[in-house]
């Protein structure tokens, strides 16, 4: 059987791979340059529970713990060998749900070229075909039109609104829920995304 993690997935010049400690400088610069781009969509922790900003070392360490426990696939998106963003399959549950949640971001300089829909397609294909999961979910703020386009391109099913579902940019925000079940997955989404180009 294929190992759960580490996993590397590739489609042409887009590579999904684990974040490494040696990525610190490149990852930190990218995040700093794009702070305003991410801020409205960035998850936060309510003040009373926050113990400050995590260091890069803590971030990598936490991602590794989650991956080792087979609860997460924390990919970095690399385009032409440059770090461009992240895509994380998280909250992987087995037993009677076999479900997971997918989150993503890409830096502004790489946006608008269809890389995120392709990366999500790669992750979904992997989750259904290799991990044999049953359901994958993406939640998006109604105001995030760019991200709504991502799930529209992928053809995910809309399930409605979860009021004040996630703490984003300093407050509890409503989210729209999109999902795909294995029995709705008729073709490789990577092929579907490549045919959109
Ligand atoms: C949402 C996001 C991941 C989309 O990634 P992407 O790789 O650009 O995806 P696409 O190339 O399919 O572009 C999606 C839409 O973004 C819009 N867009 C593209 N480039 C843009 C740019 N430079 N500035 C503003 N909007 C842009 C377009 O409406 C595009 O739809 P179209 O292809 O029909 O024209 C990315 O914009 C992002 O990371 N934003 C900040 C963080 C975030 O929102 N994360 C998701 C939280 S749910």
What report would you give on this structure?
- The chain is of the alpha+beta class.
- The chain has a single domain (9-196), classed as Gcn5-related N-acetyltransferase (GNAT) (Aminopeptidase, 3-Layer(aba) Sandwich), CATH 3.40.630.
- Helix content is 30%, strand content 32%.
- The chain is built from six helices and eight strands, in the order ββαααβββαβαββα.
- The protein has helices spanning 24-33, 35-38, 56-68, 115-129, 145-154, 189-196; strands at 9-11, 14-18, 73-79, 82-93, 99-106, 135-140, 157-168, 171-181.
- It has an eight-stranded mixed sheet with strand order 1-2-3-4-5-6-8-7, with helices on both faces.
- α4 packs across α5 (145-154) and α4 runs antiparallel to α6 (189-196).
- The mean pLDDT is 96.
- Bound molecules: coenzyme A (COA).
- Coenzyme A (COA) is lined by residues 37-38, 41, 104-106, 108, 111-117, 140, 144, 146-147, 149-150, 153.
Overall domain count:
1
Question: What is the total tally of β strands?
Answer: 8
Distance, first to last CA: 33 Å
The CATH homologous superfamily name equals Gcn5-related N-acetyltransferase (GNAT)
CATH top level class name: Alpha Beta
List keywords for this structure.
single chain, 197 residues, alpha+beta, Aminopeptidase, eight-stranded mixed sheet, 6 helices, 32% strand, globular
